[in-house]
Amino acid sequence: MAIDGARIVRAVMQGSATRDSKGIIPIFGVYLSLNYAAYYNMLSFEFERILRPKPQVRAVELLIRAAQECSYATFHGIRTSSEWDELVRPMIETETDQIEAFAAIAVALGWGDLKIKEIVPHERLVIQAMSGYEADGYLQNYGKADSGKCFMLCGVTAGFMDLMYGPDYPDGCFTYRAQEKHCRAQGDPCCEFVAVKRIRES
Amino acid sequence: MDIDWRKEYTRDGHRVSLAGSPIIMHCHHFNINLQTMAEETLGMEGANLMVCAAEQASANGLRIILDRYPQIRTVKSKIELAETLHQICGLGLLNFRQVGPRRSRVESLSSHHVTGWLAKHGRRFTPGCHFTRGWIAGILSVLYEREYEVEETACKLVKGKVCKFVATERNHGD
């Protein structure tokens, strides 16, 4: 059975419309919030802008790391949740189906129209997005960029590989690193993220 | 005025929107990681950046809803809308206890950011609800067409059972 993205979208939309008595949305093993895209974009892009005069503080690296650790913890929570067991696990037949399922959940969460372009198990993951919220937001508010701006999707790509091929949770985070090779904010036709194994300094 | 939030929570392909504004679903891991990154790297400036981003986003979001529902006119009904919106977004329970153009008091019995922070880091020594401060400031700015500073006078992340906020008109103090 292939990953049924439409079913995953329906489940996320249904689950995210249900709050507990404290106004919190517990779903897929995490607490979810629905928040304006403008909030995330302003926070990320202004963080980068503020730190631009201080090249010793690598803002882009920090933003990508924040997203990668999020991706690692979030999707670990998701894949150990009852919703995953009931809905997603029956769809998974091959090793790479799990990454397809992760990407389908990211689409359901509204992060962008992610497509897996290439998976080389243990080595390399390439994800493309024709319309992620970060590139959309950058173009809308700042115009054309001189470098990639999809920090969140970049970190998420590496986080997927950490979970799939890194050491067992919680020791595998940052086993992989990702770069945004193309970004719509720079004028490219799509955003493209490539995750490969990190070469650790001894 | 009842809003059918299920009808206002829609998607077109991968794009999700709530009452006309693009929204993104993120979990506590990302939200708290962003806060940690901003605070550790920029200190007070990082906290203020969160406040500013939340303020602009909540103000824009509320303005768009009010444009769609012009029959929501009174301050009381706008406050009810804001409290409901906060809850609909999974951000927790917010209670505007006392509201006025110069000074307002707001309490939060539960919040996404408090729940998320406690789950990831446990308690902290200083108030940490920067997002909520900004969110409140944005709502009040729409209600009164003025700008507000919001101080968190009690925070569940430090101790206690409720987060308390005092909003004062910017440049007016007490």
Give the structure's gist in a few sentences.
The complex is a heterodimer of chains A (202) and B (174). Chain A has 202 residues and is α+β, with helices and mostly antiparallel strands.
Task: Explain the overall architecture.
The complex is a heterodimer of chains A (202) and B (174). In chain A, the strands form two sheets. Chain A has a four-stranded antiparallel β-sheet, with helices on one face. In chain A, strands 1-2 form a two-stranded antiparallel sheet. Chain A has 202 residues and is of the alpha+beta class. Chain A has a single domain (5-197), classed as Trafficking protein particle complex subunit 3 (Muramoyl-pentapeptide Carboxypeptidase, domain 2), CATH 3.30.1380. Chain A starts with a helix and ends in a 5-residue tail after the last strand. In chain A, 45% of the residues lie in helices and 18% in strands. Chain A contains seven helices and six strands, in the order αββααααββααββ. Chain B has one domain (5-169): Trafficking protein particle complex subunit 3 (Muramoyl-pentapeptide Carboxypeptidase, domain 2, 2-Layer Sandwich), CATH 3.30.1380.20. Chain B is 48% helix and 26% strand. Chain B contains six helices and seven strands; from the N terminus they run H-E-E-E-H-H-H-E-E-H-H-E-E. In chain B, a hairpin with an 8-residue loop joins strand 6 and strand 7. In chain B, helix 2 (28-42) packs across helix 3 (44-68) and helix 2 (28-42) crosses helix 5. Chain B starts with a helix and ends in a 5-residue tail after the last strand. Strand 2 of chain A pairs antiparallel with strand 3 (21-27) of chain B.
